[in-house]
Amino acid sequence: MATQHISSALRALAPLSRPYAKANPGYGKRSAPGQRPPVPDDFALLPERERYVAGYVDHLPDGAAMDIKSLAKSLPLYGQMAVGSALRALGVAGHLRHVRCPADAGGGQIRWITRTYWSRTARDNEWWTTFLGAVPAAPSAPAAASPAVPQQRAQEPEPAPVPEKAPREAPEDGPSPAYLALARLGRADARLALSATDCAALEEAAAAWLARGVNAEYLVRTLTAGLPAAVDSPVGFVRRRLRDKLPPLLPASPAPDAPGAPQRRPMVECTQCGAPGRPEALPDGLCRSCRTCAASAGTTNAPEPPAERDVAAHVGTLRELLRLP
After folding, report:
1. What are the C-alpha distances in Å from 205 to residues 12, 202, 211, 243?
2. How many C-beta atoms lie closer than 10 Å to residue 164's C-beta?
3. DSSP secondary-structure letter at 168?
4. Tally of CA atoms within 13 A in the half-sphere of 198 that contains its CB
């Protein structure tokens, strides 16, 4: 009867009607590849608490918060210590790994972000070691948008029309690169000669081009290419080209490492203490110290890969592990 009660609770979690905590950009849950389709008895061999937590985590979308505090707030049946023990057991069972990935913070600085890779299908240590060893050092989704290219520009089909405005005085440090590029148009082709008022009116639209990674030379060449025999209104013609030929927004590519510089590779975090290490050094997601502590507390050795161990013995090992604080 208890198993049926828990199964009902898991089915109630499937629609994920309750709000969930979303991790900061670049952090949170990441689904491992090659998982089988979900079925009602995905986690039937796990103890009740782990089955409940696993059912909730499995229905979370990628990018959801996977820290213990956030999960405990969303799971009223268990507190933070119970959720932490459940995540540790799920790591031993082959369902998750905490991974610390390097990310470019700008200015040559590197910061580390923590992701939780989740697999509905239990994986052995060899599979996790191979998969995590191939995780790219630079996250595929940047943690933050480049300051020069706001993230919301990716959804803008074109910049808003720039209204005519009165000429403004040049700043003390000189005209902007966009203003200077517009001023050069008349020298590149007399048909696009702009006045100071015209350059000031179009400066913001030209700056949008430079923010997307092109330089002033590219801007001048594009605006002056293929001109008609006569241009009646240079300012109107340039305004339309700035709008219609705006280059696409491309993701910023990380600068290549200097020759001989050490490569920063993702590291697995121990699911109990958070100590980082290479995937092969943390079998079952536990560091050597935590595995030793578990063994000295009366548990057996680290469980074998799911494909090689007896199911009954594996469940017994998990139950012994759950008795630890």
Report:
1. 52, 5, 10, 8
2. 12
3. -
4. 17
Instruction: Find, among 107, 148, 126, 111, the residue nearest to 25 by Cα.
Output: 111
Token representation of residue 207: 């700056």
Residues 318, 92: Cα–Cα separation, whole Å: 8
Instruction: For residue 188, give the amino acid letter.
Output: A
Of 13-17, 188-192, 203-207, the least confident: 13-17
Q: Is the pLDDT of residue 95 over 80?
A: yes
Query: pTM, whole model, 2 decimals?
Result: 0.49
Query: Tokens for 319?
Result: 């139950």
Instruction: Write phi, then psi, for 118 (nearest 5 degrees).
Output: -115, 135
Cα distance between residue 156 and residue 8, in whole Å: 45
Compare 104 and 36 and report the one with higher pLDDT.
36
N residues, the chain: 325
According to DSSP H, which parts of the chain are helical? Answer: 2-13, 48-58, 68-74, 80-92, 125-133, 177-183, 185-188, 196-211, 216-224, 234-244, 288-296, 311-322
Give the model confidence (pLDDT) of 287-305 as tens digits. Answer: 888 877 766 665 444 444 4
Strand 267-269's sheet: what is its strand order?
A: 28-31, 109-118, 96-106, 267-269, 276-277
Q: Closest Cα to residue 249, out of 152, 154, 156, 155?
A: 154
pLDDT tens track for 133-153: 777 654 444 444 333 333 333
CA dist 146 and 25 (Å) reads 13
- Write out the DSSP string of 218-286: HHHHHHHTT--S--S-HHHHHHHHHHHTPPPP-PPPPPPPPTTPPPP--EEEPTTT--EE-GGGSGGG-
d(CA 71, CA 84): 9
What single letter denotes the amino acid at residue 286? L
